[in-house]
């Protein structure tokens, strides 16, 4: 069964060189049965404080899961989650980071590459009329970590993965996932740029019809690999409400 590892991480900030991971949530999604078959909520902070090498064991577990998954699913994962995770597990191992990035389905990355838009995950959920949405913000998650409100932090991270899984399921469907950019500034009269993304049987993300403000054009599925987009300056610009 092709398995996708949907994941999200919480951190103390945006820089992997100085900030640390606080919580990791993993959900293994079986694409044949269309359901989550395993879920893990991992508190890295508590593992780091453990004297019995719990963090080392956690690193090995996460590495094993990501290596064994056919695909990784993460929103802004190519620029944020994957570099953070690879630096935590094996600092300096660029090959590991690149291997995980190469098999990551990242809808934010696709929108940036195809229509030059950063589109928040919460906006995607609302634009696609999903019956689920974010329950807090990234900045609130940082505060919870500082206050050691672990249950709230884990619930928030896990809920984000639930949203991500439903977004993924929409992309698996026949109508695809709508990615609608922000309204044009400075007097633009046309509609915002948008794109419809599909995840096919081979678990590759392809585009349907792209509608630009000036004219509609078709995007071919095949495209060259591009460098992942930069991390957002503000956590909530991507994940926020």
What are the defining features of this structure?
disordered C terminus; 241 residues; alpha+beta
Q: Quick summary of this structure?
A:
The chain has 241 residues and is of the alpha+beta class. Helices cover 39% and strands 22% of the residues. A hairpin with a 4-residue loop joins strand 8 and strand 9.
Walk me through the structure.
The chain has 241 residues and is of the alpha+beta class. 39% of the residues lie in helices and 22% in strands. The protein contains 9 helices and 9 strands. The chain has helices spanning 44-49, 54-68, 77-89, 94-102, 107-115, 121-127, 138-146, 150-172, 236-239; strands at residues 3-11, 21-30, 35-43, 71-73, 104-105, 177-180, 194-199, 205-211, 216-218. The strands form 2 sheets. The chain has a 5-stranded mixed sheet. Helix 3 (77-89) packs antiparallel against helix 4 (94-102) and helix 6 (121-127) packs across helix 8 (150-172). The protein is globular. It starts with a strand and ends with a helix.
Spans of at least 5 consecutive residues with low confidence: 210-241
Number of strands: 9
- What is the general shape? globular
- Derived structural class: alpha+beta
Span of the ends, CA to CA? 35 Å
Q: In which order are the strands of the major sheet placed? A: 3-2-1-4-5
The averaged pLDDT comes out at 86
Strand content: 15-25%
* Proportion of residues in helical segments: 25-40%
Radius of gyration: 18 Å
Order of helices and strands: EEEHHEHHEHHHHEEEEH
Largest sheet: 5 strands, mixed
Number of helices: 9
């Amino acid at each position: 069964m092709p398995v996708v590892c949907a994941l999200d991480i919480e951190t103390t900030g945006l820089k992997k060189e100085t900030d640390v991971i606080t919580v990791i949530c993993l959900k293994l999604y079986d694409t044949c049965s269309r359901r989550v078959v395993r879920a893990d909520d991992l508190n890295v902070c508590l593992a780091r404080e453990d004297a019995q090498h719990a963090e080392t064991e956690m690193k090995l577990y996460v590495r094993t899961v990501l290596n064994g998954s056919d695909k990784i699913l993460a929103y802004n994962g190519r620029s944020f989650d994957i570099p953070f995770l690879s630096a935590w597990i094996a600092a300096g191992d660029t090959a590991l980071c690149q291997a995980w990035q190469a098999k990551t389905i990242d809808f934010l990355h696709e929108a940036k590459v195809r229509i030059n838009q950063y589109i928040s995950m919460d906006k995607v959920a609302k634009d696609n009329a999903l019956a689920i949405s974010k329950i807090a913000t990234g900045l609130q998650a940082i505060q919870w970590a500082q206050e050691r409100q672990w249950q709230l932090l884990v619930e928030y991270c896990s809920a984000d993965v639930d949203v991500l899984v439903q977004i993924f399921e929409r992309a698996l469907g026949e109508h695809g996932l709508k990615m609608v950019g922000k309204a044009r500034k400075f007097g633009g009269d046309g509609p915002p740029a948008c794109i419809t993304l599909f995840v096919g049987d081979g678990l590759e993300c392809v585009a349907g019809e792209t509608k630009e403000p000036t004219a509609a054009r078709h995007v071919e599925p095949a495209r060259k690999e591009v460098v992942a987009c930069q991390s957002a300056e503000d956590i909530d610009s991507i994940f926020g409400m």
